Amino acid sequence: MKAKKHVLLLFLFFAILHVSGNAEAPPERLKIKIPAAIKQQDTALLNSFLRQGFKYLYSKPVDQYKLKACIDTAQVMCKKNDIEIPSSLHLLSAEYYFLVYDLGNAMEEAKIAHEKSIQSNEPLITVRSLIFLGRYYQNTGFFKESIESYEKAISEATRNGIKGFIPRAYFNIAMVYDAIGDLSGHRSSLQKVIDNGLAEKDSVMTAYGYYRLGTSFCGDSVTSVRRNFVRADSILRKGLEFAMLRNDTAVIVLNLANLGWNYYLEKKYDIAVSSYELALKYSIPGHQDASSSNIFGNLGTIYRDLKRPERALKYYQQAIEYGLKSNSLYNLQWIYLDMSNLYLLNADTANAYLSYVKYKKYYDAYISNQNIQGLTNARLRYEVDNHNKELELLSLRLKNNRQLNYAFSGFIILTFAIGWLILRGYKLKDKRRLSEMNRRISELTQANLRQQMNPHFIFNTLNSIQYYMYQHDKLATNNYLTKFSNLMRRVLENSQHTSVSLNDELDALRLYLELESLRFRDKFEYEINVDEEIDTLMYKVPTMLIQPYVENSICHGLMPKTEKGFVKINIRLKEDYLNCIIEDNGIGRDAAREKAANRKKNHNSLGTQITESRLDLVNELYGTSMETIITDLKDQNGEPLGTKVEIHIPLMT
Amino acid sequence: MSKKLKTIIVDDEKDAVDFISSIICEYCPSLNVVARAYDVDEGVEKISEIKPDLVFLDVEMPHGTGFDLLSHFPEKTFDVIFITAFNHYAIRAIKYSAVDYILKPVNITEFIEAVNKVLFKKEEKSGSSNENIKVLIENLKTTQPSRLAIPTNDGMEYLNPREIIRIEADRSYSWFHVTGGRKILVSKHLKEFQDLLGDRYFFRSHNSHLINLRFVKKFIRKEGGYIEMADGSEIPVSRNKKDLFLIHMSRFKG
Question: Which of A526, A584, B71, B80 is surrounded by the most beta carbons within 10 Å?
Answer without folding.
Answer: A584
